[in-house]
Write a structure and sequence with these properties.
heterodimer, A: mainly alpha, two-stranded antiparallel sheet, 2 strands, B: alpha+beta, eight-stranded antiparallel β-sheet, two-stranded antiparallel ribbon
């Protein structure tokens, strides 16, 4: 079957439309279908995330020119608003109040729920472990498994000691 | 020639990286899977704000990782790409080893395993970009491998990390887990039946994005699409990976259904298309990059639908990369005009494809 539009190339895009029970069919080649916007599509022109970010930031002119600056790398908030890129890890604290709503907006959440590095995140790892042990303790108490609960209680105490002493940096 | 130089030459020359082997699950639709983790060093400005000394410091730090990484995941080499020519860098881009951004940097570097399935980009948008990639649809083993590499680096390097935000990255779109998982899919039947766009719209509602083979701007080239997670924080890594896995499995299923539908309703047309594509590829004297991609996709569909039982599928993966402009010029050993490129490409395709016909 040849394309209905140009009558030259083989029809590879087959489009049927039903409106109020009335069916129309179109058989087009890829080129004509693309021209007419059917099936084989051409996506939006290239769209860069950084520009999108900068666009989001510029929607809030009140936030510009605040003179906020990162004390470690020297990046100003204005420059971040222009480029969408932070200068260093410290920027996340330096621009915290303004950054958090932005992260929430683009990511749906700003709270990390994933992996914790073993060494640098030592304290946090202990805290998470502590929370998990406490949850288990409650479960065992609820099931009246007191022997296991006692073991857990000792582990929790030991962990709390370590956290208090700040041994885990 | 130093060990690292020889290793780079080998990476450049090897026609098949691990991700092109065509092994693993669902290779009829899924070409490869990839996971990348963005990581930065505590107290050091992000790459776009580093001075020369700081870049040197980062590269030295990366060089130190060669030994511990090698003992954990097999032979890994540190390669300073400053000396690599623009063409060599572009070859690595086409092989999916480095990003276009990395290729354009003044001092890019990487740590790479011989089969190119483990590559750590050093001094890209973030200090470290851990990327692991394998052929087929296999996100679980990749996540394990990426985690292993991450743990080794973390044992030597203090990561920029905050309890609240997680892993800190140059762009806030990567903050949190720093994770981007993606699967490369060949979905000609969904494109032919005009179902692809609807599916892309639907998956975008569950935090999944679809891009072209070579990232933004290359949509639809050879019916190849990259499906990946959009959001990097607020969920645990396992959840992000599981979400992508679930959605991808659905797309694969849909593609297979569309192929079955085509096989019953448009069989003669498909057979004609596949044989015609093979005919052109094995006889043409000039092939543009776009035409080659399109015809290779049609042949691939023919192979996967058992129409072209004669073609070795591994050759198709190889040609996908080797027929790209930079790889062609490396192969030819000289700079080529676009017309010459089309001639060399046609010759390469003929030479590789003909013997693969049984």
């Amino acid at each position: 079957m040849l394309c209905q539009e140009c009558g030259k190339r083989p029809a590879t895009v087959h489009y049927s439309q039903i409106i109020n029970g009335h069916q129309t069919e179109l058989h087009l080649c890829a080129d004509c279908a693309k021209d007419k916007g059917y099936g084989v599509w051409s996506m939006e022109p290239t769209f860069y995330l950084n520009q999108l970010l900068a666009g989001l930031l510029h929607q809030e002119p009140m936030q510009l020119g605040t003179g906020l600056r990162c004390d470690l790398c020297g990046l100003g908030y204005d420059e971040f608003a222009r480029t969408g890129k932070l200068g260093c890890g410290r920027c996340y604290s330096a621009f915290g109040d303004r950054l958090e709503p932005l992260i929430r907006r683009i990511q749906g959440s700003s709270v990390h729920a994933g992996k914790v590095p073993r060494r640098t995140g030592g304290r946090l790892r202990l805290k998470r472990e502590l929370q998990s042990l406490k949850r288990q303790l409650q479960e065992h108490v609820a099931r009246e498994e007191f022997e296991r609960a006692a073991e857990l209680r000792d582990q929790i105490r030991a962990l709390e000691e370590r956290l208090k002493e700040g041994k885990a940096r | 020639m130093s060990g690292a130089d020889a290793f780079l030459k080998e990476l450049l020359a090897n026609p098949l990286s691990a991700w092109m082997r065509g092994r693993g699950a669902a290779t009829d639709v899924a070409l490869s899977s990839r996971i990348r983790l963005a990581r930065n060093v505590e107290g050091l400005p992000f790459p776009h704000r580093m001075n020369e000394d700081q870049v040197q410091h980062l590269l030295d730090m990366a060089r130190q990782l060669e030994a511990p990484l090698s003992s954990a995941v097999g032979e890994v080499h540190f390669i300073d790409l400053s000396g690599a020519s623009p063409l060599e860098r572009q070859v690595l881009v086409e092989k999916h080893m480095i990003s276009p951004l990395h290729a354009g940097k003044a001092r890019p570097a990487m740590l790479a395993r011989r089969d190119a399935s483990v590559i750590i980009l050093v001094n890209e948008e973030d200090h470290f970009r851990i990327q692991v990639l394998l052929s087929g649809f296999d996100l679980d083993s990749l996540w394990e491998l990426a985690g292993q590499v991450d743990d080794v680096i973390e044992s030597r390097v203090d990561y920029a990390y905050q309890e609240k935000y997680g892993y800190l990255t140059a762009c806030p779109t990567n903050v949190g887990t720093g994770l981007r998982a993606s699967v490369m899919l060949h979905i000609p039947a969904l494109v032919m039946t005009a179902n692809a766009r609807g599916i892309f719209d639907a998956v975008s509602k569950v935090g999944i994005v679809v891009r072209g083979l070579y990232g933004e701007g290359s949509e639809g080239l050879g019916n190849m699409f990259q499906v990946s997670n959009q959001v990097s924080t607020g969920r645990a890594e396992a959840e992000i990976v599981a979400n992508l896995k679930g959605v991808t499995a659905r797309i694969i299923e849909e593609e297979r259904r569309a192929r079955e539908q085509l096989a019953t309703t448009r069989k003669a047309e498909l057979e004609d298309m596949a044989w015609r594509a093979l005919g052109v590829l094995t006889h043409a004297r000039r092939l543009s990059s776009e035409e080659a991609m399109k015809l290779l996709s049609q042949v691939r569909l023919g192979v996967d639908m058992d129409i072209l039982k004669v073609v070795d599928p591994e050759v198709l993966n190889e040609l996908l990369v080797m027929s790209r402009p930079a790889n062609l010029q490396r192969l030819a050993g000289r700079t080529l005009t676009p017309e010459q490129r089309d001639e060399v490409r046609a010759q390469l395709v003929r030479e590789r494809l003909r013997p693969s016909i049984r």
